[in-house]
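Quick question, first post here. What does this chain look like in 3D?
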Amino acid sequence: MIDALRNRGYHGVGVNDLLATAQTPKGVLYHHFPGGKAELAVKAIESVAEQLGGGLEKIIQRASDPLEAMTQWMNSAQKMLQKSNFHAGCPLATIALESTEEDVEIRAALNKAFTLLRSKITKVLGSLGLPDHSAKATAALIVSAYEGALLQSRVAQDIEIMRQTSETLISLVRLNLARLNDAGGKE
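> Answer (accepted):
Ran it through. Tokens below.
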């Protein structure tokens, strides 16, 4: 389901397509996911959020500089998009763009996923010394800008937009930290 969301979106894949790919009878799907495709999409969204958040945490544990870790994390999305020949976008963005007001459970799962990502980034920024309100606002900017850059890069079939966006975001964080240090840690 994650690959289907990443490549074709929620409405671009049918239950029969999913079952054929999984080589599974329809009864198995509805046994494990009584809510059908929507419930499966919610589980996929939850899984993607855990993968993205966990990936950031793993990189941070290995890196000496949290901002370098965030750069590596964003670069991994660039590599994935390029490796897929610009077919595999972010499944969160793909499904978010096509969700409607009737997709209550899906939108709730997406909200939770984006909240988790912002929270992970806020934690990183807080560890660098940004005050909580600034860390939260910057995390929101990072997620928003990077999702937008990913969409634009996918359409343009060029990762340069993502590269420029990640470099600019990290530079803004560094400038904010320098400004904070120059002010003696008071904002």
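The chain has a mean pLDDT of 89.
The two ends are 45 Å apart (CA to CA).
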